[in-house]
């Protein structure tokens, strides 16, 4: 299926906070009650429509476990959107604190549930809308890998590539 834009997203946050569940609810409309620890980085994609234009969201779900930090960092490059996820059931961050943090940093703030699907669509679509508007306003340069036109096979090749590439010295 063709699309007008491809937005790359990353999902970041501590382990077990629900990053993969959020992605699964968005792409497959289902909930995974058992914690399936993400190893390195997983990948999902879905089409959405903004301003009557088909937009593909290419979403990289990172492992929250500390030991994967150096790998997951290398996936931040070129991301147009980042979802910073934390667990609201642990009550470590109140609604007001979350809202205030977002306000100070100019972020979209939303409490969502991967279990009930509440606000899941909204979280992705609202951020995509913000990115889209920035492109229209010329804030984001589309030629500058913020919203790339990456062909499918290039993505597949990228996924198949090792996280760390060996560089051979010609000398
Ligand atoms: N009640 C509730 N539980 C959730 C929700 N999202 C996730 N969970 C629970 O938290 C567990 C862990 O969620 P994951 O999405 O696997 O966590 P993660 O952030 O991807 O963890 P890592 O891959 O280790 O970084 C799930 O298996 C659910 O039991 C939610 O929205 N509501
Ligand atoms: Mg995960």
Automatic annotation (TrEMBL):
Sorted alphabetically, which SUPFAM superfamilies does this protein's record hold? Answer: P-loop containing nucleoside triphosphate hydrolases
Pfam families according to UniProt: Ras (PF00071)
Question: Which molecular-function annotations from GO does this UniProt entry contain?
Answer: GTP binding; GTPase activity
What InterPro entries does UniProt report for this protein, alphabetically?
P-loop_NTPase, Rab_GTPases_membrane_traffic, Small_GTP-bd, Small_GTPase
Q: Where are the transmembrane segments?
A: none
Which residue positions does the secretion signal occupy? Answer: none
What's the family? Belongs to the small GTPase superfamily. Rab family.
Q: What is this protein called?
A: Uncharacterized protein
In its UniProt entry, the species of origin is given as Triticum turgidum subsp. durum (Durum wheat)
């Amino acid at each position: 299926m063709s699309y007008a834009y491809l937005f790359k997203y990353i999902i970041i946050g501590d382990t077990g906070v629900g990053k993969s569940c959020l992605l699964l609810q968005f792409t497959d409309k289902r909930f995974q009650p058992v914690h399936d620890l993400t190893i390195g980085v997983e990948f999902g994609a879905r089409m959405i429509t903004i301003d009557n234009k088909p937009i593909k969201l290419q979403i990289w779900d990172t492992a929250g476990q500390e030991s994967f930090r150096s790998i997951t960092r290398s996936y931040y490059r070129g991301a147009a959107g980042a979802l910073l996820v934390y667990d609201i059931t642990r009550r470590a961050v109140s609604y007001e604190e979350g809202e205030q943090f977002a306000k100070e940093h100019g972020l979209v703030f939303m409490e969502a549930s991967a279990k009930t699907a509440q606000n899941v669509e909204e979280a992705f679509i609202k951020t995509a809308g913000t990115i889209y508007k920035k492109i229209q306003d010329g804030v984001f340069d589309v030629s500058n890998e913020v919203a790339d036109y990456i062909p499918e096979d290039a993505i597949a090749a990228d996924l198949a590539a090792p996280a760390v590439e060996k560089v051979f010295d010609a000398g």
